[in-house]
Write the structure tokens for this entry.
Amino acid sequence: MNIKEIHNVYFIGIGGIGMSALARYFKFIEKNVAGYDRTTTPLTQDLEAIGIDIHYNDDINAIGESYKNPANTIIVYTPAVPTSHSEYQYFVTNGFQVKKRSEVLGIITKDTFCFAVAGTHGKTTTSSILAHLLNETGTPFTAFLGGISEDFNSNFLFKGSEYSVVEADEFDRSFLRLFPDVACVTSMDADHLDIYGNSDELRKSFKEFVDRIKPGGKLFVRNGLPLKGITYGIEDDSDYCIRNLKIEHGTYIFDLGTPELMLRGVKFNKPGRHNLLNGLVAFAMAIEAGSPPNRLAEALETFKGVQRRFSYKIKEDNFVYIDDYAHHPTEINAVYDAISEMHPNKKVLVVFQPHLYSRTKDFVDDFAKSLSKFDGVLLLDIYPAREKPIEGITASWLLAKIENENKKLIEKSSIIQEIKAQNPEVLVTMGAGDIGLEVSRIKKEFEYAN
């Protein structure tokens, strides 16, 4: 695929977070961009606002005529769209270049110095921190992010083409389309077992990804993972290590040790030790772009965050509201630990929306154990995303396994009244589905009530 010869780019599933970043890129380099998605969302509305034509019905006749010429049009699709989709079938059977999002991302970044962030958790936060650090140190780079950076208010940033920052997504083995110069692996917990079958196959895929690092490249690995690379950790023997960690007024303060030097009194404002680790490896990777370590350490303090990643929506003395994308038991545990560290001895209520029938089925006992830690649990129905229901796999089944007397299955329409009935000191909404669309409504209801 030669991008210079492509005039038109059509996206099937344009509203996905990764797809919309690519759409922004092609619009930025002055290609004609259009696409389909199932429903309108804030992401699709933002794309339409910059002149991208989007329709919401699976209809070949809704495709613009200029996108029906295979000679100068490329089709980008997400694996979340079924192959039975009529528009997908039209393009496949009529000789178009039809490529997965990950393949296009690999083509775009192949001729750059590519930073790739891999791991079952932490990709979006780590890549967003890395983009922030590179931006603060004047590095010419392009970033494709899996969330909306609060520093840039976007999931796409173009500051040059010498370097690139991408998320190396393990779903559907997408990261095997990338060609990193520097990569990191933040975690390798079992997930996407509907794709891999078992955790051994998932680990094997991560090793295949590592083998794709260009000759002379570097791999950063969280200490304890079964991969060989430059290690990072907290209060251990890692190559990059956080030491003497303390919390003052909700801010982490620590010493940061590298193989060459020790930086004293570094500050970082995102709660949770998992986020500290994300910041540490982003720092280590940014050094590979030649950025001065002292300047990078200063930039760590000014990182604002990523929407729906431990995002404070309300932070008052008597009421705190946090929203997070957590949709895996390990992520829920990390959120709980961060809340416990930053807001000890507070009454915490979680509103959780399970994501995918298959993930609920594979990890139901772990979900129940993680959710049981909270003082109260309000559970929404499973968000299906790309999946069809699996018999017997329901939110009620999960609820029955949660060992907490204060638990309830609720409808989205009753979220606010159920929260009011609980009167929590700390409220957290969690999940990767459309629960995120409820956040502004919840915030509006509670920001002046407390």
